[in-house]
Design goal:
By secondary structure, the protein is an all-alpha fold. The protein is about 35% helix and about 0% strand. Helix 1 packs antiparallel against helix 2. The longest helix is centred in the C-terminal third of the chain and has 19 residues, at about 65-80.
């Protein structure tokens, strides 16, 4: 089996290394390079109405409501993987509103 750039790690032909494992360790040339910094993002303001929402007693959520709330949370998680904070916040706000009011 061919060896990867790490001692003792064997990767079979045609296989890919896990995403968090570099295929090769770059050799230091002694020259420092510019590091890429994430660009700061402005976060949209949190909807103030969400602070005042109190679950109103007998809200009955359907299985579809739970599925939609889970979908919004999943979208928020995906947005965070791309450092898209405003989209993550928007989707979390949608999920909270749905779960606390029964409406979107």
């Amino acid at each position: 089996m061919p060896s990867s750039g790490f001692t003792g790690i064997q990767i079979p032909p045609g296989a890919h290394a896990p995403a968090n494992t570099p295929a090769e360790v770059p050799h230091s040339t002694g020259v420092t390079s510019n590091t890429i910094q994430p660009t700061p993002q402005t976060i949209s303001a949190i909807d103030p109405a969400l602070f005042n929402i109190v679950s109103q007693g007998d809200i009955r959520l359907t299985p579809e409501d739970f599925a939609r709330a889970q979908k919004y949370c999943k979208y928020a998680g995906s947005a965070l993987q791309y450092e898209d904070v405003s989209t993550a916040v928007q989707n979390l706000q949608k999920a909270l509103k749905l779960l606390t009011t029964g409406r979107e």
